[in-house]
């Protein structure tokens, strides 16, 4: 279901990338309170219109992301910036379902684009919650971005965001990181 509406979906974005995001992949959003989650529900920031317009809504490609990487690249930096934040868990869905959300004219509403974070450093890092891992290269190859596939009018934006929110809901209860991501380092 990759399409011309999302040209970046058609090629991997870095040599070290595991490849383009496939329809069968699981896509996860890490939920930090109060940013993405508050009062047992998603906040408006969870599916930020601004980030979606800029193609900067960060998500994880589950099959290409470890628990270590989630803590190191996503959770710990957020908690360090603001110790009042709290890890809630993970909301996840299948990529093809994200790509299937359409506008009132039948056009795709969202793109899911491979966007690995590649850096080099072989230090050992404490990643929190009693987990220690050896992120040898500290690469976060399972990082991806979501974006709107096109310019949408305000009503279509609201409808698309609402549909995306419903898709990521899993009985209104987030999963734990340990239940979703593999342990391997």
Shape: globular
> Strand pairing plus helix content: what structural class?
alpha+beta
- In terms of DSSP E residues, the strand content is 15-25%
Kindly, what is the distance between the CA atoms of the first and last residues, rounded to a whole number of angstroms? Answer: 31 Å
Order of helices and strands: EEEHEHEHEEEEHH
Helix content: 10-25%
Low-confidence stretches are: 122-132
Care to count the β-strands? 9
Q: Secondary-structure blueprint of this entry?
A:
Elements (H helix, E strand, L loop, with lengths): L25 E8 L3 E2 L2 E2 L6 H6 L2 E5 L5 H15 L4 E9 H6 L9 E5 L10 E2 L5 E2 L9 E6 L5 H15 L8 H4 L5
Antiparallel strand pairs: 1-4, 1-5, 2-3, 4-9, 6-9, 7-8
Describe the structure.
- The protein is α+β, with helices and mostly antiparallel strands and 185 residues long.
- It has one domain (7-176).
- 25% of the residues lie in helices and 22% in strands.
- It has 5 helices and 9 strands.
- The chain has helices at 49-54, 67-81, 95-100, 154-168, 177-180; strands spanning 26-33, 37-38, 41-42, 57-61, 86-94, 110-114, 125-126, 132-133, 143-148.
- Residues 122-132 have low confidence and may be disordered.
List the keywords.
alpha+beta; two-stranded antiparallel sheet; 5 helices
């Amino acid at each position: 279901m990759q399409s011309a509406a999302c040209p970046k979906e058609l090629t991997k974005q870095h040599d070290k990338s595991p490849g383009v995001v496939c329809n069968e992949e699981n896509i996860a959003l890490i939920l930090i309170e109060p940013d993405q989650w508050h009062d047992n529900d998603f906040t408006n920031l969870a599916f930020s219109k601004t980030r979606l317009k800029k193609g900067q809504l960060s998500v994880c490609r589950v099959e290409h992301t470890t628990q270590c990487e989630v803590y190191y690249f996503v959770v710990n930096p957020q908690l360090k910036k603001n110790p009042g934040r709290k890890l809630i868990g993970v909301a996840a869905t299948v990529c093809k379902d994200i790509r299937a959300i359409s506008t009132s004219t039948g056009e795709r509403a969202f793109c899911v684009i491979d966007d690995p974070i590649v850096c080099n450093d072989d230090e050992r890092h404490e990643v929190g919650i009693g987990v220690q891992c050896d992120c040898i290269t500290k690469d976060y190859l399972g990082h991806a971005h979501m974006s709107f596939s096109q310019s949408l009018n305000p009503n279509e934006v609201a409808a698309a965001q609402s549909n995306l929110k419903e898709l990521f809901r899993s009985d209104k209860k987030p999963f734990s990181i340990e239940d979703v991501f593999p342990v391997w380092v």
